[in-house]
Amino acid sequence: MSTPDVDVLIVGAGLSGIGAAHHLRTAFPGRTYTILEARDAIGGTWDLFRYPGVRSDSDMHTLGYRFRPWTQPKAIADGPSILAYVRDTAADAGIDRHVRFGHRVVRASWSTADAQWTVEARHDGSPVTLTARFLYVCSGYYDYDGGHTPDFPGVERFRGTVVHPQRWPADLDHAGKNVVVVGSGATAVTLVPAMAEDAAHVTMLQRSPSYIMTLPSEDRLANTAKRVLGVRRGYFLARWKNVLVGTFIYQLSRRRPRVVRNLIRKLAIRQLPPGYDVDTHFKPRYQPWDQRLCLVPDGDLFAAIRSGRASVVTDRIAEFTESGLRLESGATVPADVVVTATGLRLLAFGGMELIVDGRAVELPKTMAYKGMMLSDVPNFAFTIGYTNASWTLKADLVSEYVVRLLRHMDDGGYDVAVPVNDDPAVTERPLLDFDAGYVLRSIDEFPRAGSRAPWQLGMSYAHDVVNLRHGKMNDGAMRFTRRTVPAVR
């Protein structure tokens, strides 16, 4: 068996990848690792999105790393601040020196005989090959090359500018112009108040409403706790406070949806102008948490509507005209700039091809073990965060589990760890049980989840803390083996 280039190869230098590297280097100072990053900078999502007002839709006490307290006063942070936080984490730990930029992974092949991965990437148009004992994919599940934009009739006639938030032009000037933001999700409710500061008017054009809740941009309890108890203890307290509050709201939404729906409606009425048609523009057809709740810090979206700088129109686009949009109701909306905040596209593992002992892995035929490994795919882990809470809460736990797994392999002298589903009673489920459009469009291309543990993608942080941080390694589904060395004749 040839000696691999690195012990662990991480794919992706975003929030998850930098966190994974930090956990690995802390637990195993002597173990080698490399991060392959397709882009030219650290940051992942937070380096990709550059649209006005880009910010987190989770509080930074849970979106921040467990090992690195968020120290700024704002809990709902802007994109540049989050990007700086990720890059500072990498630089302070020397992780940035282990990143190879501009390396897009296209194929990863596992050899049982060698007990290692051979990973093929493209760099400046040329192939690059690296070998590793363990492959850890932290590339998220978005397609970074482009978002989802429907085929709008007549868009070629439009004389203005059409832009998707994922590809925001640095030179776009919307000052004094009529802007239409198509969509009602987290990106749309972020863009509208941000662009309304300079635009002549911003219209949020939605086919149907989303649930929108106001959250203070600063967490007073968290800031007080950090001041009184110290940064680390205060951060720990704020983190668990927000986990418990978020869990309570989610569970209440699933068990008493009418209560949460009525509460959100009443809060919207208080923040909108008197007589506003709340039920047309802010009453979704689905139940709370069938899709992710949209958070607006300090009610900035509602403030923009009250001021008259922004408005909401609930209708469907019939066609683009030279000067704007004609709607199915017959109404028209003038526009100089149209922002298609119409969603993202999903892409499993950055589009890389997986091969195990010469056979291509068909992802929809695999099952996700604990939402972080694949059945019959050895020495491989990936990160998918929570849909009902902060991404990093799960990313930290996955990293902790990978550390435990590698330590268990070291202690037992094992070369291979592979989940095996040989329980005929386990039936298939979608990996993400979520009704968002971007999920429904692509979920069939992803691995499947199972009907029982350990083949379920957990959505409870407290439950995962127990199972991923303290659960048994030998659970009947995870198999550990040693490489068989051929006898010398």
Automatic annotation (TrEMBL):
Necessary cofactors: FAD
Matches recorded under InterPro entries: FAD-binding_MO (IPR051820), FAD/NAD-bd_sf (IPR036188), Flavin_mOase-like (IPR020946)
Keywords: FAD, Flavoprotein, Monooxygenase, NADP, Oxidoreductase
Keyword Flavoprotein annotated: yes
Gene Ontology MF terms: flavin adenine dinucleotide binding; N,N-dimethylaniline monooxygenase activity; NADP binding
Superkingdom, natural source: Bacteria
Coiled-coil blocks: none
Keyword Flavoprotein belongs to the record: yes
Family named by the database record: Belongs to the FAD-binding monooxygenase family.
Protein name, as recorded: Cation diffusion facilitator CzcD-associated flavoprotein CzcO
